[in-house]
């Protein structure tokens, strides 16, 4: 580790760092902040979920890490360098996969490369095939998006985000359009992929149980202006499975977060 690497209180390297981050979209002094005073260090290859009431600024934080938005207060940095422009090294997965309907699944996965460089190589195609296989999509690689279920389309979106092998994976309510069973399964699939291809993940969700099931830590935000209510360590063993959901500790953690969300002024 070089001496440029910031260390947080636990002695681990901070990969993504937010220091005193605040933002308002409307710069007029009388308008309220959207997020305020956010301090967070995310370690390399850590899985951090963000939960909080609608409108508290979760997506705003994610856009800041991607460099799509520069905070009006404080600083976001990645590996000790301030984020000042859109980053190339992030993969983003949204609620909808937004696949191009006229391209096959494989070509959709390769599309960002084609768009960026005008071409892709045989080794890119090999990597696309490997990722599709890991996501259980090999037999759908030559199908058109409308031949796939919503869960499969979302898997394609994840594979597409991973193709460029980004170090940071930003996921904004990626499974919220899926039915409960598919959602749980794709969560486990995501954990398998994350294990094989470690990434630093920032995962926004409205589902408290999903946050607990998937993540290493959970940032709980207050209602607008979004501030940090708590940063909860999820000390559940990995690999996580359906058994995890039935464990007493899982219930304790979800209850604790529910306490914050439903009684935000009362310490949990
Ligand atoms: N581009 C923008 N211009 C102006 N206001 C915005 C913009 N984007 C978001 N906002 C406002 O900022 C606040 C936070 O929005 P954001 O989408 O970050 O919250 P969120 O916690 O992700 O919400 P949700 O859970 O409903 O998706 C909201 O009040 C929203 O209306």
Question: What low-confidence regions span 5 or more consecutive residues with pLDDT below 50?
Answer: 1-5
Write down the overall mean pLDDT. 92
The CATH superfamily appears as P-loop containing nucleotide triphosphate hydrolases
> What's the CATH C level?
Alpha Beta
Instruction: Indicate the proportion of strand residues.
Output: 15-25%
- Percent helix among the residues? 25-40%
The CATH architecture term is 3-Layer(aba) Sandwich
Strand arrangement, largest sheet? Answer: 6-7-8-3-9-10
What is the total number of structural domains? 1
Rg, Å, rounded = 19 Å
Short structural summary:
The chain has 268 residues and is an alpha/beta fold. The chain is built from eight helices and ten strands. The longest helix is centred in the last third of the chain and has 17 residues.
Describe the structure.
InterPro entries: AAA+_ATPase, ABC_transporter-like_ATP-bd, ABC_transporter-like_CS, ABC_transporter_ATP-bind, P-loop_NTPase. This is ABC transporter ATP-binding protein. Keywords: ATP-binding, Nucleotide-binding, Transport. The chain is α/β, with parallel strands linked by helices and 268 residues long. The chain has one domain (44-69, 86-262): P-loop containing nucleotide triphosphate hydrolases (Rossmann fold), CATH 3.40.50.300. The chain has eight helices and ten strands. The strands form two sheets. Strands 6-7-8-3-9-10 form a six-stranded mixed sheet, with helices on both faces. α2 runs parallel beside α4 and α6 packs across α8 (248-262). The radius of gyration is 19 Å and the shape is globular. The protein starts with 13 loop residues before the first strand and ends in a 6-residue tail after the last helix. 37% of the residues are buried. Mean pLDDT is 92; it is low at 1-5. Bound molecules: adenosine-5'-triphosphate (ATP). Adenosine-5'-triphosphate is lined by residues 25, 34, 52, 54-60.
